[in-house]
Amino acid sequence: DALKSGPTAHQITSAMSRAAGPDLAEASEERRFLSTAEAAALERELLEDYRFGRQQLVEWCGHASAVAVTKVFPLPAVSRKQRTVLVVCGPEQNGAVGLVCARHLRVFEYEPTIFYPTRSLDPLHRDLTTQCEKMDIPFLSYLPMEVQLINNAYRLVVDAVLGPGVEPGEVGGPCTRALATLKLLSIPLVSLDIPSGMPGWDPETGGDAEDGLRPDVLVSLAAPKRCAGRFSGRHHFVAGRFVPDDVRRKFALRLPGYTGTDCVAAL
Amino acid sequence: DALKSGPTAHQITSAMSRAAGPDLAEASEERRFLRSAGEGDGRQEHDWKRAWRAWGARVSLTTLTLSTAEAAALERELLEDYRFGRQQLVEWCGHASAVAVTKVFPLPAVSRKQRTVLVVCGPEQNGAVGLVCARHLRVFEYEPTIFYPTRSLDPLHRDLTTQCEKMDIPFLSYLPMEVQLINNAYRLVVDAVLGPGVEPGEVGGPCTRALATLKLLSIPLVSLDIPSGMPGGGGCWDPETGGDAEDGLRPDVLVSLAAPKRCAGRFSGRHHFVAGRFVPDDVRRKFALRLPGYTGTDCVAAL
């Protein structure tokens, strides 16, 4: 009958693949980073084969990024200044993740402010923007070039400007100028997926250390990218619990264990 | 400059409205409420209810539960005004439901049987939440099995089904009527058959038969949003009131989605959670809902 033959047979099969000896596991799961092309392929698999929606992926990444922020910068009981966060969003998917991150920071009782100079016309971006506006998250009309003003007003900055595969030259003047200002920050910087870079910066290799931002915290989305190998900041998280086991195995990724219901793991 | 005038001014304004003494907050709630009541936003409330709410807002009473109409209005506000997607809402609810399961039924280190969960999904939104819940239980290393007899053709449902299939979650082709088989095979059952506003008679034979079997369960039952009810059966079961105790399921755990519904007032099980962290403060205040205490980054709170 269905009860005895269906799930139990499946469970036996799963048990066999999970309990397979260390040889099998080690041989196939040695890699810790994805190239830009592989990251795109992994995302395509989630969207096309698994039929996840882009809205889902962006939501998981943004939520997990906000959770990572709470782990490194927990809310103090008292100080109001200590709750302020500046989230700088680019026009592509990394920026969408930033918008979601800002909204969840608001839910977690931080006080995010968004700088989103080059707005995408994409419906998902527009909806995410509306969600932030309706939740009373202020949008700055411009970012001061005087970095001390930013240092004074915010506890930390979230860099959601560029993701892997986006040429720094594509994002336009305001984002480029923002990145130039962020390079001079003295407050902590949290980069989503990869540290955003300047024109000429190569996301594959991490390029010349002069060109990219040097964040204190990196939140790798789905899995760490190549340039995470050069990350020298204090905290590296991976937000990849939503990646199904089979996909992780297919890309031969060795990733840390998540505890309980956590959506991020510290590397 | 933008930094001094923009966010700081806003922050001051926000700080004023948040930290304001009860008078200012209550007055602004009252204004907001009366304005919306006056605009006739289609909630179809009786005048006496509106007056009661206005008085309640003035004296900072909050309600604990939403009627079916109010729940629908809250959802409409999230979808139309806030531009959240239905995919987002269903995902938050399903994920939070899975988290609630882990809180009540934590994974033991050893026993395999203790990881098995049966998730029974109806054809409407409650069933979609069940599909998401099953997927997250899988991520949390439980072993869910889904019974989803009446499949919706809705693209969201189809995608959620594909996601579960791709993650190797088995779908039962039929549910045994012999309840002892279910008691033996699973540690608990998740009831995602009916949500508020769905007539039990709408969901078709297989779901109705499944509910009849679930009524006889001896293993724990977790209901999503409301305990699913039975059609007819000596006076129709009414999601508003919780109806005749004979007709609806009597779960051990209730996970209220967004906010508790009226029938949660009759809930007599062991654990009641609310999965409502995604409800923005302004919406919560508009519906005069009491804010449950969420800790840290938790998405569910125990009531």
UniProtKB/TrEMBL annotation, chain A:
Residues 39-255 form the YjeF N-terminal domain. GO terms for molecular function: NAD(P)HX epimerase activity. It comes from the Eukaryota. Signal peptide: none annotated. Residues 1-22 are annotated as: Disordered. InterPro entries: YjeF_N_dom, YjeF_N_dom_sf, YJEFN_prot_NAXE-like. GO terms for cellular component: mitochondrion. NCBIfam families: yjeF_nterm. Interacts with APOA1. Binds to HDL. May accelerate cholesterol efflux from endothelial cells to high-density lipoprotein (HDL) and thereby regulates angiogenesis. May orchestrate hematopoietic stem and progenitor cell emergence from the hemogenic endothelium, a type of specialized endothelium manifesting hematopoietic potential. YJEFN3-mediated cholesterol efflux activates endothelial SREBF2, the master transcription factor for cholesterol biosynthesis, which in turn transactivates NOTCH and promotes hematopoietic stem and progenitor cell emergence. May play a role in spermiogenesis and oogenesis. This is YjeF N-terminal domain-containing protein 3. It comes from Camelus dromedarius (Dromedary).
From TrEMBL, chain B:
Residues 1-23 are annotated as: Disordered. SUPFAM superfamilies: YjeF N-terminal domain-like. Transmembrane segments: none annotated. InterPro entries: YjeF_N_dom, YjeF_N_dom_sf, YJEFN_prot_NAXE-like. It comes from the Eukaryota. Gene3D superfamilies: YjeF N-terminal domain. May accelerate cholesterol efflux from endothelial cells to high-density lipoprotein (HDL) and thereby regulates angiogenesis. May orchestrate hematopoietic stem and progenitor cell emergence from the hemogenic endothelium, a type of specialized endothelium manifesting hematopoietic potential. YJEFN3-mediated cholesterol efflux activates endothelial SREBF2, the master transcription factor for cholesterol biosynthesis, which in turn transactivates NOTCH and promotes hematopoietic stem and progenitor cell emergence. May play a role in spermiogenesis and oogenesis. This is YjeF N-terminal domain-containing protein 3. The lineage of its organism: Eukaryota, Metazoa, Chordata, Craniata, Vertebrata.
